[in-house]
Amino acid sequence: MAYVTHNGNFGLWVDRAAPVANGVGRKVKRLARRLTNALEAPRRTEVDREAARLLAQSGGRLTDSMEREIFRKVFASDWSLPQ
Fold it and tell me: What is the pTM assigned to this prediction?
């Protein structure tokens, strides 16, 4: 036996505006982006520092082999969030 509800049974949700319409969705999206950027910033600076160190060791020349070495070190390193 099937039962179909009428949307009148959910009165609390019928009168509410969509999150995008009332601006809540935009605020949550902005907050999530700021939080993600804050968590990624230390990792990004660590990767930049490591790439600069490897580039300095090669005498400042970016060759194919040096580029492969940088990517190998970046992608092989620990991707966990900072503690």
Answer: 0.51
Helix segments in 1-83, DSSP class H: 11-14, 24-57, 64-76
- Residues of the chain whose pLDDT is less than 50? none
Domain count within the chain? 1
Residue with tokens 């968590």: 39
User: Is residue 30 a part of any domain in this protein?
Assistant: yes
Q: Is residue 23 within 8 Å of residue 29, measured between CB atoms?
A: no
| Domain limits for position 68 | 15-76
| 2 occurs within a structural domain | no
Whether the CB-CB separation of 51 and 68 falls below 8 Å is answered with no
Q: How far apart are CA 39 and CA 41, in angstroms?
A: 6
